[in-house]
Amino acid sequence: MAQTNETEARPPSTARITAVIYILGVLMVVGKYLPAITAFFAALNLVLAAYDFTAGETGWMILHLIFGAGAVIFLVQLYQRRNIHSYDYHNHNGNIHYPAMER
Predict the structure, then answer these.
(1) What is the value of pTM for the model shown?
(2) What count of other Cβ atoms lies within 10 Å of the Cβ of residue 73?
């Protein structure tokens, strides 16, 4: 008599697919509000840098300034990328033409 494997006898589980769908939904919501989230953290870091400046905490002030500047740079790059892609989408142009890089 041949033994059957237990995993072959059970029907496949959809728990993994359900988890992937849930995670993708969360990622879509985060992606939708990414500019607002980034702007909030940039403003928070810049406010904390101002507070650290008044409190005399130079090390923390520099750290918060670096994080705030990084968030602002990321936000600017995010909007530049969005404008490039939306321009090509609204002109019904399938080709994406990025500006030529200067050498």
Answers:
(1) 0.60
(2) 11
